[in-house]
Write a structure and sequence with these properties.
With about 220 residues, the chain is an alpha/beta fold. It has a domain of about 140 residues: P-loop containing nucleotide triphosphate hydrolases (Rossmann fold). The protein is about 40% helix and about 15% strand. The protein has nine helices and eight strands. The strands form two sheets. It has a six-stranded mixed β-sheet with strand order 4-5-6-1-7-8, sandwiched between helices. A two-stranded antiparallel ribbon has the order 2-3. The longest helix is centred in the last third of the chain and has 18 residues. The two termini are about 25 Å apart.
């Protein structure tokens, strides 16, 4: 079955733990290789892509990791600056200004000088998102962006995802197991089971599906 995402669309990928959701994201940026089939990102075939061409493609895809993956030895603003150091056209001051601008967009400007160990889980997610936005990606990948967060903080992250979609018109793929997040942010939902797509459609259609697995997942989610 083919899975396609349109420009500006937010696709939420649901599924049980261990069913292949995070693997899907890693495949999309070449961190894992697929066994069969074809993967095209921004019109470019990923199969066999290595070296500089793969690096250039990755620059167009932002990735928000489940654990935020911040560098503990760098301050918040230095973490956001890090991807910009490879942009030769920017001076050190321009990189710092850009990083502070991104932190402001995610509501973390007041914590710019803090270290990651001083941040809560939700704050780390916001900083990770600011860093992922640094290179102005065309596509954003979110791996369990609300995992481990309290309901209020989860709601704030969902609202931030919606705001960024509206402001930047990015395509987004959000991997999660949380039904409520899907209802809030999804234009379309795909449900995985044992590595296969068993549903692809609107959230409303998901909740009315007569498929046994889909119905069970929705009722227990």
């Amino acid at each position: 079955m083919t899975l396609h995402i349109s420009p500006g669309e937010t696709l939420v990928v649901l599924g049980r733990s261990g069913t292949g959701k995070s693997v899907l994201l890693r495949l999309l940026i070449g961190l894992q290789t697929h066994d069969s089939g074809s993967i095209q990102v921004l019109g470019q075939e990923l199969t066999g892509l290595t070296g500089a061409p793969l690096y250039e493609l990755r620059k167009q895809v932002g990735f928000v990791f489940q654990n935020s993956a911040l560098y503990d030895s760098l301050s918040v603003v230095e973490n956001v600056e890090f991807p910009l150091k490879y942009q030769q056209r920017l001076s050190a001051q321009e990189r710092r200004d850009r990083a502070l601008e991104l932190l402001t967009q995610v509501g973390m400007e007041a914590s710019a000088r803090k270290m990651p160990t001083d941040l809560s889980g939700g704050m780390k997610k916001r900083v990770g998102l600011a860093r992922a936005l640094a290179l102005e990606p065309a596509i954003m990948l979110y791996d369990e962006p609300t995992a481990g967060l309290d309901p209020i903080t989860s709601g704030e992250i969902n609202e931030l995802i919606l705001t960024l979609k509206q402001d930047r018109a990015m395509s987004s793929i959000v991997v999660t197991h949380e039904i409520h997040s899907a209802q809030v942010i999804a234009d379309r939902v795909a449900l995985l089971n044992l590595g296969k797509i068993v549903f692809d459609g609107s959230f409303e259609a998901l909740t009315h599906s007569e498929d046994a697995f889909v119905s069970l997942f929705v009722s227990t989610g």
